[in-house]
Structure formats: C-alpha cells, structure tokens
C-alpha cells in the first residue's frame, strides 16, 4: 500500500488494527516502511492530546505495526513471499520505498496493490489507476499483473459540494475567489459552479499572473 507519510499512514495503521480487532482480516504482519512515517507516528504517540485516539489506543496501534527503517530491511521484506501488509511511501508511487515493492510484486497476480486515494496526472499511481499494462521504474518496464484495489474514501480534500457548502457560510461576499489547486477540467468546473451559485468573480490563476491585493 503506497501512502503519504504524514497522517495518512497513521490512518491506515489504525484501520488495519481495527480490522484485526474485529477479525475482519487475519492477523498477519503489518509493516510501516517509511523513516519519515515512523518519526511522524512517534509524534502522534507523544502528543496524544492532539488527537482523539488517546495514548493507550495509539500505543497498541504502534506496537501492532512493525517499523522498517533501513533500505536493507526493505529489500529483505520485498523479497519475502510470506503474507504481509506493507504501508510504504510515497502515496502516488513517484518515489520512495514503495518502488522496491512495485518492482517485486507488480507482476505477481497473488499480490494486491491498494491505491490509497487521488492520484495526480503524470504519476505512476495514476497510470496504474487508469489500467496501464506496464510501468516504468528506474529505466525498466514492469508488467502490471497484481490485483489493483482503489480506495476512494480516504481523500483529505473536500469535494465540490463540500466546498460550495463551506463558501455558503461566508458572511461577506469576497472581492474575488482564486482556485489554485486541482486539474484544469475540475478547477474550471468548480469556477463555473461558484460563479453560478453565488454570482462571485472567480479566477484560476496562471503562471506569472499578478493580482493586486487591496
């Protein structure tokens, strides 16, 4: 499972722990292969007052997940054919430890690659999501024969309806609304939706555009 290392990896650690507790998945080893993700997990554990799980629960989640730090461990784990769940960076498969696992397991029909959320255009994750038959990694092509699962409920971004709902709560009309994140077609659809819903001026800034802020 490729994953973003801040917050998303910890979400998956918790969810896998919950699934094991409910006996909805077998008790097989769960690994977090991301030095940054491990450090972030320690921050979660140290500052437990900042989240809702509390120290006892997250400590159990942390102990339920085996931590992989060295690249040698990554190589050994990727070569190990025994059943396991590996959460590895990066989330869109353009870099990070997950590439080692992709090289080993993309061509294995018994493996499952879980796409954890939105994959931007031009990333390996997007290519796999769109059904590519082979993926180029470090100059070599690897066939995609593994089972691919796509999770659409883990996005941290609000969808169009949620953004419109949030904007409706503004007490004063903004002088201008800027849309600066998203693919061109989606951004333009949101621009039209905001304009038609509220009658506001909406702009999608382009490179080198300048707007005076009064």
What can you see in these coordinates?
With 214 residues, the chain is α/β, with parallel strands linked by helices. The protein has two domains: 8-150, Rossmann fold (3-Layer(aba) Sandwich), CATH 3.40.50; 160-203. 39% of the residues lie in helices and 15% in strands. It has eight helices and nine strands. The chain has helices at 8-21, 35-46, 54-64, 71-79, 98-105, 124-129, 160-167, 184-198, and strands at 30-33, 65-68, 85-88, 112-115, 134-137, 140-143, 147-150, 177-178, 202-203. Strands 2-1-3 form a three-stranded parallel beta sheet. It has a two-stranded parallel sheet with strand order 4-7. α2 runs antiparallel to α3 and α4 (71-79) runs parallel beside α5. The mean pLDDT is 93.
Index terms:
alpha/beta; 8 helices; 9 strands; Rossmann fold; two-stranded parallel sheet; 214 residues
Q: What is the architecture of the largest domain at the second tier of CATH?
A: 3-Layer(aba) Sandwich
CATH topology of the largest domain: Rossmann fold
The CATH C-level class name of the largest domain: Alpha Beta
**What amount of the residues lies in strands?**
5-15%
Give a short account of the largest sheet: 3 strands, parallel
User: Which residues form runs of ≥5 with pLDDT under 50?
Assistant: none
Secondary structure: helix percent: 25-40%
- Mean of all residue-level pLDDT scores: 93
The strand count comes to: 9
The helix-strand sequence is HEHHEHEHEHEEEHEHE
| Amino-to-carboxy terminus distance | 46 Å
> Looking across the biggest beta sheet, what order are the strands in?
2-1-3
Radius of gyration: 21 Å
Tell me the count of domains. Answer: 2
Shape: globular
């Amino acid at each position: 499972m490729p994953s973003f290392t801040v917050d998303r990896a910890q979400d998956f650690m918790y969810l896998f722990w919950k699934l094991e507790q409910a006996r909805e998945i077998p008790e097989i080893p769960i690994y977090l292969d991301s030095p940054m993700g491990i450090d972030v997990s320690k921050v979660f554990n140290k500052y437990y007052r900042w989240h809702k799980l509390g120290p006892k629960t997250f400590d159990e989640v942390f102990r339920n997940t085996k931590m992989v730090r060295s690249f040698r461990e990554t190589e050994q784990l990727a070569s190990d054919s025994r059943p396991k769940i590996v959460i590895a960076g990066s989330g869109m498969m353009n870099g990070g430890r997950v590439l080692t696992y992709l090289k080993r397991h993309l061509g294995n029909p018994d493996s499952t690659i879980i796409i954890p959320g939105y994959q931007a255009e031009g990333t390996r994750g997007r290519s796999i999501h769109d059904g590519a038959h082979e993926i180029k990694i470090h100059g070599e092509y690897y066939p995609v024969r593994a089972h691919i699962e796509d999770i659409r409920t883990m996005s941290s971004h609000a969808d169009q309806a949620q953004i419109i709902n949030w904007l409706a709560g503004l007490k004063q009309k903004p002088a201008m609304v800027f849309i600066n994140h998203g693919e061109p077609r989606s951004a333009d659809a949101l621009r039209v939706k905001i304009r038609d819903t509220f009658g506001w001026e909406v702009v999608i800034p382009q490179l080198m555009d300048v707007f005076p802020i009064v």
